[in-house]
Amino acid sequence: MLPIVVALLAAFAGVVLLAPVYIGLLQRLGFGKQIRSDGPEGHFGKAGTPTMGGMLVVVVVMFLAMAMRIEDGYTLTPMLALVGVSILGAIDDFVNVHTGIGVRGRFKLIWQTAVGLLAALYIQRHFAIPGVNISFISVPLPFDGEVVIGGLLFVLFVAFVIVGVSNAVNLTDGNDGLAGGVLIFSFVAYLLIALVAAGGKPSQPNLAIFCALIIGALMGFLWFNVHPAQLFMGDSGALGMGATLAVVATITAQLPLLAVIGAVFFAVIMSVVLQVASFRLRGRRIFRMAPLQHHFELIGWAEEKITVRFWIVAALAGLLGFSVYLATVPGLQ
Q: Is the entire prediction scored with pTM above 0.70?
């Protein structure tokens, strides 16, 4: 446990110490966020706040990961996914700052899909994961075990989830402190899962340390991102962190459990899917505005209240997910 605590504290300290300098640099370079005109009116005052804060998190995490020499089969894929998708996010942040629009959605989807396919292919070839573990549904249903799927189907499914979670985290990054806090609880759950060896799955201490680095760095980021935010995560953090979370879930062989642990992200992206589908099919909206957090803003919830309540739901989801894991993995009942 000592390396995990050291990693968390080191990442937290690194971000907190570097953030003031980084924020000043972004301000001098004119890297201020441009707010979409169709967003909540309460967000217009945030225009000009430095963005691309996610790159600071990524740099600190990667530097400490290499300094602690935790690169192994379990950490290489999430590290590459973090860097690969964060580069896309950084480009998107850069374009947004200068145009107010960002990279075209089609281009982002192609990039995310390429990274997702490469990550899924590597995982399939280097990890003994025979299928998708859905044993957790034995809680409400008399069913237990894995769904063993073929090679190509496994790669496509994992890539789909990586792209989906990446975009779900990005959509959640709409209020000060929201995405960062929810991500912390999700990574805490998978840190604990990585430490538990059972059911033929070995413990993954280096993966747990990597999760601790991300948790600590996100805590440091939240120091400056809570309302009123001095620094935004931007796509450089949200897209990369979402993809990394999905990769970590896959490597721990608990990918479907991400629907529980990442319940907030799932709810946010589904609010967008349902809103678009309803408007196209019926000409009517379900929510006042999507993603979900903006709906609550428009019905009168303060931004801080939305953030803290989503954090509470994320904490409960993480606790539930880890509890379900302990209850369903052979040898831990």
A: yes
| DSSP H stretches of helix in 255-291 | 258-261, 263-282
Q: Residues with Cβ < 8 Å from 244, sequence gap 6 or more?
A: 78, 81, 82, 85, 214
Cα 152 to Cα 83: distance, rounded to the nearest angstrom:
25
Cα(116)–Cα(156) distance, rounded to whole angstroms?
9
Cα separation, 175 vs 226, whole angstroms: 9
Q: Which DSSP helix (H) or strand (E) runs through 327?
A: helix 303-328
Closest alpha carbon to 237 in 93, 100, 70, 102:
93
User: Is residue 7 within 8 Å of residue 68, measured between CB atoms?
Assistant: yes
Q: Exposed, middle or buried, 226 (CB in 10 Å: 0-12/13-18/19+)?
A: middle
Q: How far apart are CA 266 and CA 320, in angstroms?
A: 15
Q: What average pLDDT does range 151-178 have in this prediction? A: 92
Instruction: Report the chain's C-alpha Rg in angstroms.
Output: 19
Task: Give the pLDDT confidence of 84-94 residue by residue, as tens digits.
Answer: 999 999 999 88
Mean pLDDT value across residues 115-122: 92
Q: What distance in Å separates the CA atoms of residue 176 and residue 227, rounded to the nearest whole number?
A: 5
